[in-house]
Amino acid sequence: MSLQIRKIETEEVREKKSKRNILILSIVMISILVFSIAAGYFAPREKESVISEGKVQGYGDFWIFNYQGKNIRLSSSPESTENVSVTMFTNIKNYFGKTIYVASEYISEFDEVSSALQGYAERIQPACYGACDKNLPEKNCTDTMIVIKPVVGAGFGDGKVYEEENCVFIEGGIVSVDAFLYEIFGMK
Predict the structure, then answer these.
(1) Residue 33, helix vs strand vs coil
(2) pLDDT band at 142, cuts 50/70/90?
(3) How far apart are CA 75 and CA 172, in angstroms?
(4) Domain count of the fold of the chain
(5) Are residues 178 and 121 in the same domain?
(6) Each residue of 102-121: pLDDT tens digit?
(7) Per-residue pLDDT tens digits for 40-85
(8) Is residue 119 domain-resident?
(9) How far apart are CA 57 and CA 118, in angstroms?
(10) Global pTM?
(11) Which three-class secondary structure state does DSSP give residue 54?
(12) 11, 72, 101, 166: least surrounded by Cβ within 10 Å?
């Protein structure tokens, strides 16, 4: 077994090696930093989407339009709502600052209305249209109300939207709900 004997170095030689190692390490670190910044700057970027007021654009499974600076996201395209009969005179201004009661058996329809009207209505609350056995307020057309009713046996896009007093009745599924929302935001 042979032992290697290390050379005795002077303090000056050790300090010189230490400075050289620090300089090499600093150059490597600065190079990594500069190259990572440059790579981030020159890397291809995804196009930033700016949705123009009054224009509906598809994004995956959703359709988005801008109304007064707020992006409204819906589940149905404007084309898929064309077979829904919409007979009403209400627009979004009729909901500003009001409590909107929504009667719906389905959470998805309630959520669609709620997310679209959020920021325009004072409050959006689930309710029952008339008497019910749920722990919800029982409302009628003296209140501002949206009543969503399923249509049994209706095809995709079949349905209708109409109003009576302060109630808007939506018959059909999510496509009919979106037809109503496109209408009140003036997108139809």
Answers:
(1) helix
(2) very high
(3) 14
(4) 2
(5) yes
(6) 999 889 999 999 999 998 99
(7) 766 654 444 455 556 888 888 888 988 888 888 999 888 888 888 8
(8) yes
(9) 20
(10) 0.69
(11) coil
(12) 11
